[in-house]
Amino acid sequence: MPEHAADPHAEPHDHVVPVGTYILVFLALMVGTAVTVAASYVDLGMWNTPVAMLIAVTKAGLVVSFFMHLKYSPRLYWIWLGAAVFFLAHLLLGTGADLLGHLFLNLGSPGT
Amino acid sequence: MSSPSETPPVVAHHPALRHHFDTMATQKDSSLLGMWVFIAQEIMFFGGMLAAYAIYRNIYYDAFAAGSHHLDVKLGTINTAVLICSSLTMALGVHAAALGKGKATVLFLLLTIALGSVFLGIKVVEYADKFHHDLVPGPRYSAESLHGPHGEALTADTARHSELFFALYFGLTGLHALHMIIGVPIIAIMAWKAGHGRFGPAYYTPVEVTGLYWHFVDIVWIFLFPLLYLIPHHA
Questions:
Q1: pTM
Q2: Measured between beta carbons, which residues in chain B are less than 8 angstroms from residue A53?
Q3: Architecture, CATH, for domain B24-229
Q4: Which among A75, B1, B131, B138 is placed 20 to 30 Å from B122, CA to CA?
């Protein structure tokens, strides 16, 4: 938490992000969307989905950092977001590893 | 014995400051933290269905690709752009509120509602198409309008599993749309309050908290769009 003086008259001293930053982020998100759609029509072999997810994560990072002001926010908010992302990754990677075992290591068909 | 100097002074404070907070700043930090905790919970909430999607997409890839190719990429792209625009107007609305510009706040919040409504309207058009082609999971489900990468009919197994794709399509986009349907009236309340001078540079926390929610809903769509609409036929 930032150091707030115990002055009852104190008002939140917010970091006001310039409008130009919002416009730049907006343009980057639009370009990211266009690149995502364009890349989906190119045969990248097994890399189509990783590329799409990499762009999505970048776009999400821009929204979180600037539109949601996380870049200028107390670290405590970062920890909460990080915890959620950590456990989501745990969920996806854990089930993913199990699935890989079933699909490629003959541990039995996952579909039955 | 007590002298007057020991009596706690009665100080004027902002009318929005609740008695259990020392300052407006700590009150605001607590409110924003509350929203971030809620968002952390929402990530796990959507995460369960995303994990189900990831597993079934890998097991029944052909069925998911066939289902995905029935979705309208053009409408999905337009909706992605519309939602990003609504996130910009929401950010500008919060920005205007922070600067105490009441009229601009109202304008940007109303624009956000309009863009959110356009998104939901396009979603209705898309859902209607699925009903028209019997692609809604249930007793009427039929994969007859789906086809493989070379226009061929689907095998019986792939056709059967394509229903799973549409179950997750409706589940994920429906849950996302529900969040928007909840968000629109909340933004409307914020616009009404802003129009009645309830906010100023010293207190606009409700607008900012609403903004966090709306941006989160935008992020969910940023992931849903490529996952549902852009599954490649190859790979």
A1: 0.90
A2: 223, 226
A3: Up-down Bundle (1.20)
A4: B138
